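G., before I forget:
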Amino acid sequence: MRRALTVGVLLLAIAFPLAMQAIDQTYYVTMASRILVYALAATSLNLILGYGGMISFGHAAFVGAGAYTASIMIAEGMPSAWIGWPLAMAVPALLALAIGAISLRTRGVYFIMITLAFAQMIYYLTVSMKAYGGDEGLTLTQRATLGFGLDLKDDATFYYVVLAILVAALFLVSRLVNARFGRVVQAIRENESRMEAIGYPTLRYKLIAFVLAGALGGLAGALLANQNSYVNPGILHWTESGKLMIMVILGGVGHLYGGVFGAIGLLGLEEVLANHKFAWLAALYPDYQQHSLLGVGVAMLAVVLYAPQGIAGLFRRGKDG
Amino acid sequence: MAEALLRVDGLEKHFGGIVATDGVTLEVAPGEIHALIGPNGAGKTTLIAQLSGSLAPDAGRILFGGADITAMPQHGRVRAGLARSYQITSIFRRFSVRDNLSLAVQARSGSSLAFWRPVAAETALAEEAGRIAAQVGLGDRLDAAAGSLAHAEQRCLEVGLALATNARLLLLDEPMAGMGPDESQRMIGLIERLRATVSVLLVEHDMDAVFRLADRISVLVNGAIVATGTPAEIRADADVRRAYLGDEVPT
Amino acid sequence: MSLILILEQSLNGLQFGLMLFLLAAGLTLVFGIMDMINLAHGSLYMVGAFLAATLVQATGSFALGVLLAIPAAAAVGMLLEVSVLRTLYARDHLSQVLATFALILIINELVRMVWGTDMPLSAPEALAGPVQLLPGMPYPAYRLLIIGVGLAVALLLYFVVAKTRIGMLVRAGASNREMAMAMGVDIRKLFTLVFGFGAALCAIAGAMLGPILAVQVGMGENILILAFVVIVIGGIGSIRGALVGSVLVGMVDTVGRAFIPHLLREFISPAFAGAIGPALASILIYVVMAGVLFWRPQGLFPARG
């Protein structure tokens, strides 16, 4: 039943660009690619935030580091995705290793704040990279090349590549959280001191999860840079980290599809509020579309206050109470 | 007497101006059940925390199996065979009893850096968990969420988690805390059966349990060991009676 | 690099640090007493600045406008506390971060709807020019006013927290909530009051910095992060820590930005120094924070025992 649902949704996702081409609405293919990229980023955060209970307030730094690495590779004349994207995972992974090694020793509020501070450092580093645009950002002359006759400039092809990567990542995460490692990470969230007391070096496991999340986030960043053909420090701003956290909460903390639901929910909401005119809202406040973030904020607040289990929680309600 | 399994030498711990552990020297022999008693605030739990490695002592040495483990982190001590249970129940409440115990088994059997194979497929872990569950009297509650167990059952799981590490020495911190008389009797039976396989350092307020189980007893008052001896010796020790035991001593 | 330049930059650092303190003081009290992370604190700073700009315009007097903006912002703060933030005290930090993050978006848009993207606010005419502090060292009079106001408020705050009954309750609350409750304090009212007080301090900072940094939507977001850095360095819940942390961060940031590029040029090639100097200067305070947390994980002046 569950598997049938998954396959069904996957088939719909595969058919989506064809359907949009048929009705001449290819804008939505680009939009959907963007949602899938954010779904990947949010999924990577969910790995540590949801499964691992680590409230990292600096995830945008890893996404941004990946985006910049991929962009710089293209700008330096090495557009192959087979080199650029692995590197866009390796660089954030190394950053995560260094940041995690220091910050995972702290607890609670201090952890939230120190991850935020490290992310700010990387943000300012990108601002000062004058060779790559500084705070103006860096415009890419081309998208990465993939070979095999796949042209990433084609929006449908790009969509399928992103979809394939997201599906692979979700499969990986689903294996991981049910394997020994995933169980250890979830048990650390549940009761870290007891994990130490039954013989686990908990810091090591948290650090590995942190690095994995950084690498996956970096890959999402590489895809984002390619999609926009542009990258600027704004992608690393702390409010971006906040948005990713919102996606995870909105979608479902520690739920496999939490990041996906959250990206669809948040970006979908932004899209609907900004680009579709509701007559009754316009009657209330004519310029409301220019203030779509107000609606997003209200929705977020409502989720946190009234539905802390997120969208996935709505599906799960019957199961565990 | 054989070489001591655990030897504590001049252990000291201060919190600000308060002396919590004041030069504790203590030996636990292999196969022994050694009880540690003392009034509330004597520093028993602080001592357990230092022995298990969650709290660093200010001075002194801890030798386990002849090796100096004073600076060894907690997880390393567990691997070496020294595990603790908690006075205040500390279990994985949202995990089933089986998963609680197999987590502890997993820690000592093979690497946990396995990212692909579902842990549910590892029957060896589940079987070992089931065996330990049966040992602590939870054989029929394997699928229950730990948080949903009755208090006494949670206390059994608490001990089971320490047991599942395959320790050579268990530091049991008030295993009978909050238990009724019948439940205490069962816990006493459980610890009695452990005697064959593992040594125990038992912190306990239940004097009945202490005098029935212990081979030797050490009395901790104000962070210092004031007496060590067989139950008979401790019972006869006038100082101990005055300082602590009072009328509680069964005769 | 002359002595005068160093003095001037130090005064700038002190001035920025004192304003940072006004933000950090409210934040650290809320953090310490209610164990609550309030990202929307920066929004109160923004609202305070917009209120001040409006009231200065309406009254035609800088002083009167700013003085009126303070109670107005306090009212906004208390309204926010009673309507939303109060329900968050019992929630975990993650929920608090997210809910107050949502509030930032909401308040940003509301301000945009009421005032637009920015508001003009300039220093009073009389203080527009420089004062001759030392021979050969002119310094903007308005910046001196900021320093004066900052010092006065810091002193007042010290007096309130250290000497008054309210301050004693606040300190008791910061170090031991149960004790404060046991003393029969109406905790709910105290919390609302502390919030209003924090908002008032925000308004002072927003109004005073407005003429220098521009009154615009989003102005609170970067300074909020600095305020958090301050309270983490100073120790959560500690006013003294907030003061030391603020001046430290203000100084390190301002002086670092002014001198690090020059300093680097002494050692490495000017081109390379020009490239990494600004980067190094802007991350300096985060390096300081990481260093402090590494050696003193509870900050410099931990309020809790």
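The CA atoms of residues 27 and 41 of chain C lie 7 Å apart. Chain C has a mean pLDDT of 86.

More on Monday.
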